[in-house]
Amino acid sequence: MPESTTTESAGREPGAVEVLARDDVERKKFLTMAGRTMGAGAAATGLAAFIAACGSSRSSSSQPASTVSSSPTTGTTTSSSSAASDPSDLSIVNYALTLEYLESQFYAKVAQSGLFHGKTLAVLKSFGAEEEQHVIALHKVASGLGTPAMKPMGKFPIHNAAQVTALASTVENLGASAYLGQAGNIQSKEILAAALSIHTIEARHAATLNTLLKKSPTPDGAFAKPMSMAQVLAVVKPFIA
Amino acid sequence: MNSSDMASPELGAVEVHGINRASFILRGAVAAGAVYGATAVAPYVSNALAQSGGSDLDILNFALTLEYLETDFYNVKGTSVGLSGEAKGLAQSFGDEEADHVAALTKAITAAGGKPVAKPKFVFPVTNQASFLKLAYVLENTGVGAYNGAGPSITNKEYLAAAGSIVQVEARHAAAIALLTGDPITPNGAFDKPLSESQVLAKAGPLIE
Questions:
Q1: What is the per-residue burial (b if ≥16 Cβ within 10 Å, else e) of A59-87?
Q2: What is the CATH number of the domain that holds B46?
Q3: Residue B53: what pLDDT?
Q4: ipTM of this predicted complex?
Q5: Do A193 and B194 touch (CB under 8 A)?
């Protein structure tokens, strides 16, 4: 399939992420449609972002950035029906943003490590560039909904090529599972479209790394398995300083 | 479709509005496509579907048609064309997974009281391993675009979860094939593009006999 350099060529709708990322009018629409988040929202860092996302109720937190509790927060909400324990779109986007920050940081370290060369290095750099685009887009989406999560401090062991490739595979498969786990929770159709368009990129990355490791590109077989925020948190925790 | 529909395809799209749109249009588009070529029909189909999105069952049946196509491609064509090495193993494994998708979609449609579409007859214009893999790449990427395009229209959360679980596998397939063909692992760059049903038809239609 040829790469499209324009997002609005004849017969093609612009990708959902492109629309959200570049269009101020679209973002303002979401702010209105998704329900205004009250207060500053939690500009939480790293691990705290996950805890806040896992524990948050349908509304946003109104706590100041420096303190984040692990208990569910309540606040006023203008959104329509949803279980009180379901994460808000902002929480989900910030959760994804945090994961993408970590992936981007990981690949930057990998590129600098000197452990890879030639085609493999080119592939890993291209994956890192794509994760960085995910960061940029999700940051814009989050900004349209409230306060975006702050950049976490990732810490990744980088020892040798085999170990790093295995770690990359872990990270990407985790990312794919994380997006799949949240698809059903996203309220906005446009944000869902954006999440779906990123989810399959993580899947492509994961399958590539699995193949490099001589493992199956489809480790779960015909049906990929979702992971919950809590499950993802458990795996990611060691990689956040 | 009668001759007046051919003369003014817009009318043809409007006439079927509200009556099991997606599967009718798919069959109609395919029938017209056989005469005019799928690309001639696709633009006129897209407006009708774009506004409506189709019902959940319409979407599942559209997906089922694609999964029938992929299963046949890997299992039947994959055997007859003669594959070797990694390509052979991949075709066998992916064919099994597509067959599982067919089973799951059929079960979901039936459980919902719907009628699963009949398996169409397919024709795959490939003659060797290289052309087989090239078409595999196109089909898997089309599948990704199809599910991502339909996803936001799905109203039932369980169907959405299933679609997500399946599309992730299609994307994994596409990447694995890309590693064999040398094609881009991410042909759309950092964000996979959702495809409308008409765009999917443009790719898949010509393969339906």
A1: bbbebeeeebeeeebebebebeebeeebb
A2: 1.20.1260.10
A3: 52
A4: 0.78
A5: yes
